[in-house]
Design goal:
This protein is of the alpha+beta class. It is built from 14 helices and seven strands. The strands form two sheets. Strands 5-4-3-7-6 form a five-stranded mixed β-sheet. It has a two-stranded antiparallel sheet with strand order 1-2. The longest helix is centred in the N-terminal third of the chain and has 32 residues. It is globular. The chain starts with a helix and ends with a helix. The relative contact order is 0.14.
Length: 392
């Protein structure tokens, strides 16, 4: 018996020591080795055309406390629910609420569809079916809305949210609409087998990445020039060439371009309507805002098969709004249809220009940019941030 107790005490000491070591390592990693970069002033210029101004600069002064931010989020949620029925075919994401948890203080708020704010207890949150995920960017779905975790210190760190000028504020609202849209997609027609289910970025295939990078830039140019169809036909020619030159890469892109692309489109239009009600009142204003955003390649261009799909699919949906009636319902019913494929098929009788061919020097240059981007990745400090929030 004494021997058993001695073994148990040794095991307990080992477990406690390991727990302290892990907690200490996470604390040290987050606070000292890999702290999240911060800036209390914007580092990205606003998007402006002299009429519209989009970005964090359009919302000055930004909220500085959690109470001020919850008020901003409530206004966004109210506006969203006012316009939601017209944002998607037979939209199910209407009359949506949001539960907010401040993960430093464990305070909770319910924002109802009309923008009403109500404080909740933890028990009341759980009674509503919300699964708490109290860590950096944590979220979960509940019947009638979304739970999101926020941190008061993040509200004043522009580096965390300024790259979303379509919103221009601290970004949990993006989670609210983007992830909510993914829930709606569960009722769409599904592929029997999903290529690239592992969401590989295929960064090592620089030739394919360069072709998709060109394609994304052409799509953005097409959106930014609504009265000029030439950039759109250039993009369609590149798309045709991409499918022929990189068939495996194309097959791996279908799911992301379709699912993440449409969710990104929904995010774009939901945010613009909800965050800029004084500037964006109707579809004409929305069109102008989307055209303005598409001029910002510095913000809306990224590298990687999956990441590319967000922007290629999302901004192509803007082109579908211009040219293809009823495209949303058609895309929902075809599990292998992407926004760009639908646009391509719509213009199947159009004589496309010769596709632009990239030089090896251009492909190599993109490979260097991809490597530089990977070397400057945010993985370590966001990982330690997640673990810190989870443990502390």
């Amino acid at each position: 018996m004494k021997k058993f107790k001695k073994i148990a005490l040794v095991l307990l000491a080992i477990i406690v020591s390991l727990a302290l070591l892990v907690c200490g390592g996470v604390f040290l990693g987050h606070k000292v080795l890999f702290p999240v970069p911060t800036s209390d002033v914007p580092s990205i210029e606003a998007a402006t055309d002299g009429i519209l101004t989009l970005g964090v600069q359009a919302h000055m002064p930004q909220p500085a406390t959690i109470d001020e931010y919850v008020d901003v989020l409530a206004r966004q949620v109210k506006r969203y629910n006012e316009v939601a029925p017209k944002l998607w075919h037979e939209n199910a994401l209407t009359n949506q609420s949001i539960i907010v948890e401040e993960i430093g203080k464990n305070d909770f708020w319910l924002i109802e569809p009309d923008g009403t704010i109500k404080s909740l207890s933890k028990d009341e949150v759980l009674e509503r079916g919300a699964q708490r995920t109290p860590y950096f960017n944590g979220f979960s779905q509940f019947d009638g809305g979304m739970y999101v975790a926020v941190a008061e210190n993040d509200i004043t760190n522009y580096l965390l949210f300024e790259e979303y000028p379509h919103l221009g504020t601290y970004d949990p609202f993006i989670t609210f609409v983007h992830e909510g849209f993914h829930v709606q997609q569960e009722d769409w027609a599904e592929m029997d087998e999903v290529p690239n289910r592992g969401r590989g970025e295929f960064l090592e295939d620089t030739a394919a990445r360069a072709k998709r990078n060109l394609l994304l830039r052409q799509v953005l140019k097409a959106v930014s020039e609504p009265n000029n169809t030439q950039p759109m036909f250039d993009a369609l020619a590149t798309y045709e060439d991409y499918k022929a030159q990189f068939p495996d890469d194309y097959k791996a892109s279908i799911y992301t371009d379709r699912i993440e692309g449409t969710a990104y489109y929904y995010e774009l239009i939901s945010c613009l309507y909800s965050a800029y009600p004084a500037q964006i009142k109707d579809e004409s204003d929305l069109e102008s805002a989307l055209s303005l955003l598409a001029t910002r390649e510095d913000v809306y261009v990224d590298y990687g098969l999956v990441v590319e799909g967000y922007m290629i699919g999302g901004f192509t949906c803007v082109l579908l709004d211009r040219y293809v009636d009823g495209w949303q319902a058609k895309l929902m019913d075809d599990p292998e249809m992407t926004p760009l494929e639908m646009l391509y098929q719509h213009f199947d009788e159009e004589a496309l220009p010769a596709a632009v061919q990239l030089t090896q020097a251009e492909i190599d240059a993109l490979g260097v940019r991809i490597q530089d981007s990977s070397d400057a990745g945010t993985g370590p400090y966001l990982l330690f941030r997640f673990l810190y929030d989870f443990l502390f």
